[in-house]
């Protein structure tokens, strides 16, 4: 059988996303139908809508989600009907060269559903990051479902599906922040703020948040940043000097670039201590170009790393981080700055341009008082 449900679809580049009927097919042997309870509004969805990812329109938007397993394929063993799950876009295959080398966080052949969702006229949809979760229910591969404690609210747990995990993992996994180290995070949106929380969780003694928006700097302090720097109007060298002043004159052990433009990367490169680590977690535009003196790359040593999905392993990281939240040790709830319903997704996407929210979360079946403008 199949199901007709309502979902948010980008039909054409830079056109408003629309609420339309979507056909969910009967699951294949390893597919799972998930009733979506909550899904975060991420910059990646905005990039899909505006053609910044690829041109495989129409896109079913949404990917940062949690919900309940409703139907399972005949060969599914990983989850059962009724399980509370966070969806992930790195369902490791176990067979590719990365998995065989023991670095499954870089899996090059992650699983997706075997059948496509379609519009009512039969047009196949491209689900955002292989998920597509601005919808009442979606179809994914069983490996894309990670069971977590059902005690966690869906609007909080779902954030681990993308942006918050990317930031936490940039600090905990890619940056490998150690107790007593110093960390600077450039860009304090949802990902950068999560990197602040990750650095605090790792035991960094100095945690510096950098942004041009005062309310984001205050939010970073609320998450545990020991210092903040408003970089508005400052040159690269001035920013570097301020970071050095806060780190004994040396620069930070780890600098995380959560913006992903050449200017912020260069700042991160020079704001670190000798032999320090730079972590790029902000996604660059395809046309971005970086120029650095090769002698500086050699002479400063250390490591220049890119963080893909926070280098996470969903089956390891999602349950662990959810438990830390339930224990009061990880303030995931602070990232939810507003809620809306499916009809409010387009407004929530546009609000991302304003840069004043960490996450608006879409909750199915409930329109909260804050609405999409929160």
UniProtKB/TrEMBL annotation:
<dbReference type="InterPro" id="IPR017816">
    <property type="entry name" value="MycoS_dep_FDH"/>
</dbReference>
<dbReference type="InterPro" id="IPR002328">
    <property type="entry name" value="ADH_Zn_CS"/>
</dbReference>
<dbReference type="InterPro" id="IPR011032">
    <property type="entry name" value="GroES-like_sf"/>
</dbReference>
<keyword id="KW-0479">Metal-binding</keyword>
<feature type="domain" description="Alcohol dehydrogenase-like N-terminal">
    <location>
        <begin position="28"/>
        <end position="149"/>
    </location>
</feature>
<keyword id="KW-0560">Oxidoreductase</keyword>
<dbReference type="Pfam" id="PF08240">
    <property type="entry name" value="ADH_N"/>
</dbReference>
<comment type="similarity">
    <text>Belongs to the zinc-containing alcohol dehydrogenase family.</text>
</comment>
<dbReference type="Pfam" id="PF00107">
    <property type="entry name" value="ADH_zinc_N"/>
</dbReference>
<dbReference type="InterPro" id="IPR013149">
    <property type="entry name" value="ADH-like_C"/>
</dbReference>
<dbReference type="InterPro" id="IPR036291">
    <property type="entry name" value="NAD(P)-bd_dom_sf"/>
</dbReference>
<keyword id="KW-0520">NAD</keyword>
<keyword id="KW-0862">Zinc</keyword>
<protein>
    <submittedName>
        <fullName>S-(Hydroxymethyl)mycothiol dehydrogenase</fullName>
        <ecNumber>1.1.1.306</ecNumber>
    </submittedName>
</protein>
<dbReference type="GO" id="GO:0050607">
    <property type="term" value="F:mycothiol-dependent formaldehyde dehydrogenase activity"/>
</dbReference>
<dbReference type="InterPro" id="IPR013154">
    <property type="entry name" value="ADH-like_N"/>
</dbReference>
<feature type="domain" description="Alcohol dehydrogenase-like C-terminal">
    <location>
        <begin position="190"/>
        <end position="324"/>
    </location>
</feature>
